[in-house]
Amino acid sequence: MQMTRSGQAAVAGVVMLAAVAAGTSPVTASVAAKEPSGLAQYLDQDVDWHDCTLGPDDTTGNKLDAAGAQCADLTVPLDYTDPGGRTLTVAISRLRATDPAHRVGPLLLNNGGPGGPSLDMPLTVGAAMGKVAKKYDLIGVDPRFVGRSTPLDCGWDVGSTVFSAGEGRAGFKHSVARQRDLAERCRETNADVLPHVSTRNTARDMDVVRAALGAQRISYLGYSYGTYLGQVYTELFPGRTDRMVLDGVIDPARYTQTLLADSTGANERALHAWAAWTAARHDTYALGRTADAVLTTVRGIQRAAAAKPLRVGDFRVDEHFVPLVYFSGLGSDLDKPRAELATATRTLARAADGQHVEPGAGLSALLAAMTTKAGSQQGSAQAAILCGDVATQRGTETYWRDIQAGRKKHPFAAPLSYNITACEFWDGPAEAPTVVDNDVPALLVNATGDTRTTYSGARQVRDRWSRSRLVTLFGANQHGVYGEYGNRCADAQVNAYLADGRLPVRDVSCPA
């Protein structure tokens, strides 16, 4: 599920990569496994650094080049059990350490998703790190099938595979039909690669990146889904990580095809908090002078969209995507995203009244990504990764029962977070999901009101990783804290750890 932020010894490496490629236990295989023929060519490959810009319209490449970054394309096997077979490209970027005397090594970055491009992250993370960034080679990595890394596209006519079940049974049946169609399109266009789209293979690619960079260990900063990827990497490649920061922490036990179900209550509470904020600014937004009045406006928009899709400029927004506009806007309680959601609500309310409206730039970009082919590539990768990890066939009625049970307490969030996904119609994973049962020293960061990766999940990971420490941002509805929320306490804790590698003596509480 899309969880974007408001705002990741050489010989031993060969043995361990061989072990996980064969699907065996890392502990057992590290002793007995043999390197698959041809794997060394990936681990020992030369890195050809070059300019990042691909063309005049490549904004990301232009920004990276302007900052002095370089890019490269690494080669990895599609199937780690067949290293001599088909290959893929994994695109990486690098901002080199400018303090070589105190260089720590590479810091790999992941922006979450699943399916989120991360090539530009050295720019944003470098800004948050300040002078600490001088100690690291900041490495942005587009995971396999994402961004510039041999992208996957199923040719969908919508961008988001996450949407609400709608108001009633008819809407849910439409969701089922749409998700079945999405899965069938992906199977028809990409059946040969789908078995190899998984977090486990992305983690294996990370270790190829590590080896190609000439590092015995990597440091890692991952947000949201990137925290799950980081945990999987530590399980498959024990001893390969140095300093780890996981921000917006996913509990692997809750990583399922209905990944958002755990955040149902947090999203409902965030909606009410936003409504109260908006009501206090009625003179600006005219959406209601009380929180209940604002929520009544939102419910009116949803009912109108259920009766007939809203005309918003060139877009048609139905009952399945209106809640997604709110879900997307509730990832932060900062004034700017709250104001953007209030402005979008004014536009949708006028559309619900039958007025001609044109969306602002932010709403237009969001609707294009959600409801049109423009978002197909990222949506395809997102679904393929999640379903490639955990797809199971539960039966369509189980989703409807969960929606109806949850709707009573969480009328806004439950029809979206419990809704059926394309994973219901996906082929089963080629490998079982990784069981993360190690204990790794890491710095975990989470807000108590996180609407994507809940605080209770972060607590579970902290309890399992007894050598880790948890930085808690109390009282904030925020997904992605470090460098995003502007909290000096949390940012200082992360930077201090990255600077000297020493975790806090105990867990840290930061007020929002």
TrEMBL record:
Signal peptide: 1-29
InterPro entries, per the entry: AB_hydrolase_1, AB_hydrolase_fold, Pept_S33_TAP-like_C, Serine_prot/Carboxylest_S33
Record GO terms (molecular function): hydrolase activity
Peptidase S33 tripeptidyl aminopeptidase-like C-terminal domain location: 414-510
Boundaries of every AB hydrolase-1 domain copy: 106-253
Keyword field: Hydrolase, Signal
Short name of one Pfam family: Abhydrolase_1
Family: Belongs to the peptidase S33 family.
Protein name, per record: Alpha/beta hydrolase
Organism listed in the record: Streptomyces durmitorensis
Lineage: Bacteria, Bacillati, Actinomycetota, Actinomycetes, Kitasatosporales
